[in-house]
Amino acid sequence: MSATAAHRLVAAIAPDALAPGTVLVADTLAADPRAAGPGGGADVPCPAAPLVEAELRRLGTATVRGVLRLAPAGTDPVSRDSAAVAALLRGGGAGVGIGVAAPPDDHAARLAARAALASWLAVAGSPRTVLLAAPRSFCAGVERAIEVVEHALRQRGAPVYVRKQIVHNTHVVGELSERGAVFVDELESVPEGATVVFSAHGVSPQVRTEAERRRLRVIDATCPLVTKVHVEARRFAGRGDTVVLIGHAGHEEVEGTLGEAPEHTVLVETVADVERLEVADPERVSYLTQTTLAVDEAAEVVDALRRRFPALRGPGSDDICYATTNRQDALAAIAEEAQLVLVVGSASSSNSRRLVELSQRRGTAAHLIEDAAAIRPDWLAGVRTVGLTAGASAPPRLVEEVIAILGGLGPVRAVERETARETVRFTLPSALRGPG
């Protein structure tokens, strides 16, 4: 682990007390006041600390975060017996640092600390450009759903129960849980007479009937664009059509839509599913789509349906929501220019996964990350241009954190590429309108 033009290793002093098997990851490198360092002895921030900490945890090593004090000048920073070591990165004005420390007599912890540090130093120091896709992050339906839960907690007090995840993002769910929201899989877990919020993905009529039977106080946070699909399912089935729903089996939105007319609706995911499809009357077939599909893939399935059923009828306007389309278009505008695409979003988020697939279909490596800590050092090897976006259920702050943390590896220039401007807003459901 030798110094390069991008950074230099320096010695640091391990804290007096570290639990066995635990490595300290520096949030700050405290300068030795007796030595002239970067900034004339000023402390050095370590924005990349979450990356180093995550790498250590992948190695099975416990971590703590804190301040690491730099050692006096002349201390050997690369000795195999060093309990603490740090690196100062230069470029782009003020420097940043990375530092780790292990218990002095803990050989395994020292090895893990140095391995984690080395893996990030291997991709640190060089400048990078981050191409920001816009629009990205929250859409109007997600903002409304989150606001519904927040408003209900203020108006009715905790606990407020939520059936399923209000939106598919673990950070959002975790933050609302801390404020008193209780997330349940099914209504049987909700006390009779309690307040329950239906998630943005919608529910079937059977769920609504169960809520009424148990005298639950329902607040419906279903996205209006999902409600539109439900209305279409009832209308198409009511006129005697076989309703072909294009979507992903098991997704909550799909389950809710299927429940509107289960005896008249069939689910297809692929062109191959269309080829196997059998219907009672080929002249009376209509189709609907899940709102978060990849636009190009959904179009292929619709084309296959039209070939098999020339009389096919569809919705008056696209079911794939504007936000899904906008985010896919925005990513397409940067994907081929980027060497790597990072999509911020949870694995449960359909629209986030579609963004990863879109980038990969365009030949650019892409990864779905829950947050910045999920970035792996090998992804960044040789990468100078990173495309960055976020699914419609991912908080904007997570994107900002990715940029800041990448800045802990060297100079970062963020360039936003906007392909559309979203002005859609949805009002709160009637159950919550008014004070509170």
From TrEMBL:
EC number: 1.17.7.4
Cofactors, names only: [4Fe-4S] cluster
Catalytic residue list: E253
Binding-site residues, dimethylallyl diphosphate: H168, H201, H251, S349, S350, N351, S393
Biological process annotations from GO: dimethylallyl diphosphate biosynthetic process; isopentenyl diphosphate biosynthetic process, methylerythritol 4-phosphate pathway; terpenoid biosynthetic process
Gene Ontology molecular functions: 4 iron, 4 sulfur cluster binding; 4-hydroxy-3-methylbut-2-enyl diphosphate reductase activity; metal ion binding
Residues binding (2E)-4-hydroxy-3-methylbut-2-enyl diphosphate: H168, H201, H251, T291, S349, S350, N351, S393
Key words, A-Z: 4Fe-4S, Iron, Iron-sulfur, Isoprene biosynthesis, Metal-binding, Oxidoreductase
Domain of life: Bacteria
TM helices/strands, residue ranges: none
Binding-site residues for isopentenyl diphosphate, renumbered to this chain: H168, H201, H251, S349, S350, N351, S393
Annotated [4Fe-4S] cluster binding sites: C139, C223, C321
Function description: Catalyzes the conversion of 1-hydroxy-2-methyl-2-(E)-butenyl 4-diphosphate (HMBPP) into a mixture of isopentenyl diphosphate (IPP) and dimethylallyl diphosphate (DMAPP). Acts in the terminal step of the DOXP/MEP pathway for isoprenoid precursor biosynthesis.
Stated name of the protein: 4-hydroxy-3-methylbut-2-enyl diphosphate reductase
Taxonomic source organism: Allonocardiopsis opalescens
Lineage: Bacteria, Bacillati, Actinomycetota, Actinomycetes, Streptosporangiales
